Amino acid sequence: MSEISREILSVGDLNRAIAASLEDRFDAVWVSGEISNFKAYDSGHWYFSLKDAEGQIRCVMFRGRNGQVGFMPQSGDLVEVSASLGMYVPRGDIQLTIQTLRRAGMGGLYEAFLKLKAKLAKEGLFDDERKREIPTHPRSIGIITSPQAAALKDVLSTLARRAPHIPIVIYPTLVQGPDAPAGMIAALKAAEKEKAVDVILLVRGGGSIEDLWAFNDEQLAYAIADSSIPVVSGVGHETDFTITDFVADLRAPTPTGAAELAAPRRDQMLQELDAIMQALLQRINQRVEREAQTLDQLALRLSHALPNPDRMREQIQGWQQRLNQAWSVRMENWKRNQSHYQSQLEMLNPQRTLERGYAVILSKEKEGLHAIRKPSELNVSNSYQIRLAEGQVDVEFSEVNPAEQK
Which of 84, 98, 120, 278 has the maximal Cβ count within 10 Å? Predict the structure, then answer.
């Protein structure tokens, strides 16, 4: 083949061909080495190199994967990674895209940690909705740790400095070795039974993965999740992660950090109380001033609604005079009406008619006396009474001759 007819590749095409060849040639590989030039970007991705005495290779671990590592790597750490081999085409750099990262030598322990973590996460033990709220002002604080642990001294000194008024209850237990998980579970149950504390600090100082392995126990994780008392986990250093950190209601980077998160600062509480008191006094003063103003307004309205006593006496006297006048007018009207009625009655009095010279004839019958109105009612068999202006007389007729009417 002549040089003219040979295909000419661009740099990008060549790099892509090399990348495809590497991906076809190599499946996932495990590589061990020392971390160098480690950088964690704001995007959440990690970039670093793995090196040993004979060479180095660039590495990238994306955010979706490194969230399961359980610690923050640093330059100089010896690690083991599971990765796919490829090439970053724009720079032509061969690199490892890392799927799993663990400390060198951890092997089976780290695999067991990841397996248990995935299981408990699937069961919901790490969900934020399940976690209990840490009390901001606990009445008492419980500590689960070894009495010989250096972490206990640090926690006690921090609590004494921040909140010397809060009582402390220590539940001693082993925090390392095969018997440690059962001891910590028993301490949790004792704290729940006594109900003497509002929050529990589960703490231990730093160490290797083997030293901290008791805090990766499955039964201990269930006991923390079932605890009715909120639990703060402060195990190891800031870069150390255990199962208890994920299942606890709050994870602290260190034992001292756990004490700081659980106990409010006494001086800060006093400042808050003073601020609350000042705000309360201000509110009270404002309320008193507002009510005083309301009282003044009511007093003004009352003064307009009720006249002064002198004015009221004048009004009463005026009403009394008007009442007397009205009563006098009414009495005069009654007297005039009475005189009129009396004169009317006098005019109708039969005695007045008799005094003018008239007489009335009354017939005496069993039913009583009744006035004779017609001549035909007179006869000789009955007796009659004649009433005159000055007396009366009983008569009987011997003869009755009716006169003819003209």
Answer: 98
Q: What is the tens place of the pLDDT at every residue in 353-399?
A: 777 777 888 887 766 777 777 887 788 778 888 888 788 888 888 88
In a domain, 287, yes or no: no
What letter would DSSP give residue 133? Answer: P
**Spatial CA neighbour of 215 closest among 191, 231, 199, 197:** 231
Residue 39's CATH number: 2.40.50.140
Question: Distance between CA 228 and CA 192 in Å, rounded?
Answer: 7
Q: Enter the tokens of residue 103.
A: 């400390």
What total of structural domains would you count in the chain? 3
145, 151 contact by CB (below 8 A): yes
Residue 340 within any structural domain of the chain? no
Distance, in Å, from the CA atom of 169 to the CA atom of 31, rounded to the nearest integer, reads 48
Question: Which residues fall within 8 angstroms of residue 179, CB to CB, at 6 or more apart?
Answer: none
- Alpha-carbon Rg for the chain in angstroms: 60
Residue 52 half-sphere exposure toward CB, CA atoms < 13 A? 8
Assigned token pair, 322: 């008007």
Verify that 160 and 260 share a domain, yes or no: yes
pTM score of the predicted model: 0.48
Pick the closest to residue 61 from 53, 51, 49 (CA basis).
49
What single letter denotes the amino acid at residue 133?
A: E
